[in-house]
Amino acid sequence: MTNVASGLRRIGGVASTSELRRRGITKRMLAEAVFGGEIVRQRIGHYCLPGTAELIVEALRVGGRVCCVSAAPLHGLRVLHGAERLHVSVDPHDSRFRSRVDPRVQFEPTATALRPGARERGTRIHLHWDSPRLDQSSRHIVSIEDCVVQLIRCLPPIDAICALDSALEIPRIGRETGLPLLDGAGLTRIRARVSREQAAMVVDRSCGLSQAVGESVARCNFEDAGIPSQPQAPLPGGFFADLLIGRWLVFECLGEGVHTAPGAFDRDHARTAWLQTQGFHVVQFSHHQILGDWPMVLGTMQLLMRRGQHTHPF
User: Fold this and answer.
1) 149 and 89 share one domain
2) How many CB atoms lie within 10 A of CB 265?
3) What confidence score (pLDDT) does residue 118 get?
4) What pLDDT is stored for residue 97 in this prediction?
5) Does a structural domain hold residue 313?
6) Average pLDDT score over residue span 177-190
7) Residue 182 belongs to domain spanning
């Protein structure tokens, strides 16, 4: 690896000509590194390493940093719906934006796009005109806190809740626990940056116990229906319920996260059988049923509750 490539790697794999020049890399060294395939020029004055994530490359071509729902998976956040457009954070004073797929093609934002979060006409790009107000420590992606703030401002509340739940989740590795992607101090800073209404609709309803998008959606939908549920409720035998309604009704979301791990099918069924012997009513729905046919799911749970299965053992 040449000094150019190693230098670029040390500063995050993405940099401008001026940044590289400040580190003693000359124009000739840059040209030779590009010719030799050590680095890639994605647009005039901007370089990255080969193999850089495609979303980061496309945002670089446009002239900004990948952000919002496009950045969420890169930070390890769960998203309810994938991004139909590439979300890019740019400076309000920036110009000469380029196509996300061809840096030779230039486009001009329309008049209706000159406001925060406006969608470009005729492109698959969603510009966020907020870059100067964000953390500048990364050259190619906004920070996780900035990403969550953008999600809360840009997406429907349930989409933002799913992402924030995953940011707050404390990972479990066997009997050990890890650290969440977002700590309490970060959550406090996020709350201060969004409106009071957004905080009430998203931040106050978030929970770090849900382990899958389906669990987050079901928990919020039950809450909207006036049905309290406890996420990851501890059960006898060292087990946990995805959601526990009342004392005896266990709601399970299958098809995502821990339920798709190797051996999960056999473990889930063994656990279900054992919990039933302990008096619990266990009801299982797939991830797709929860997201795509919630009225059926809710109607089934309400019927079981009318029968008293949440208050009486099996």
Assistant:
1) yes
2) 12
3) 45
4) 82
5) no
6) 92
7) 157-205
Whether residues 150 and 69 fall in one domain: yes
- Nearest Cα to Cα of residue 136 among 126, 128, 146, 127: 146
Global confidence as pTM: 0.86
**186 in Cβ contact with 194 (< 8 Å):** no
pLDDT at 189 over 60: yes
Asked if residue 285 is part of any domain, the answer here is: yes
Are residues 31 and 103 both part of a single domain? no
Quote the CA–CA distance of 71 and 86 in Å, as a whole number: 9
Q: What angle do CA 50, 126, 55 make, to 5 degrees?
A: 15
Q: Give the separation between CA 241 and CA 276, rounded to whole angstroms.
A: 13
Structural domain count of the chain: 4
pLDDT band with cut points at 50, 70 and 90 for residue 246: very high
Q: Answer yes or no: is 126 within a domain.
A: yes
Domain-embedded: residue 188: yes
Are residues 244 and 299 located together in one domain of the fold? yes
Query: Which comes out higher in pLDDT, residue 106 or 212?
Result: 212
Question: Residue 225 gets which letter from DSSP?
Answer: T
Strands (E) across 118-201 are located at 125-128, 172-173, 176-177
CA dist 219 and 222 (Å) reads: 5
| Residue 255 burial class via C-beta count within 10 angstroms: exposed 0-12, middle 13-18, buried 19 and up | middle
| Per-residue pLDDT reduced to its tens digit, 135-181 | 777 778 999 999 999 999 999 999 999 999 999 998 876 667 788 99
Residue 290: HSE in the Cβ half-sphere, 13 Å Cα cutoff: 25
One domain for residues 147 and 161: no
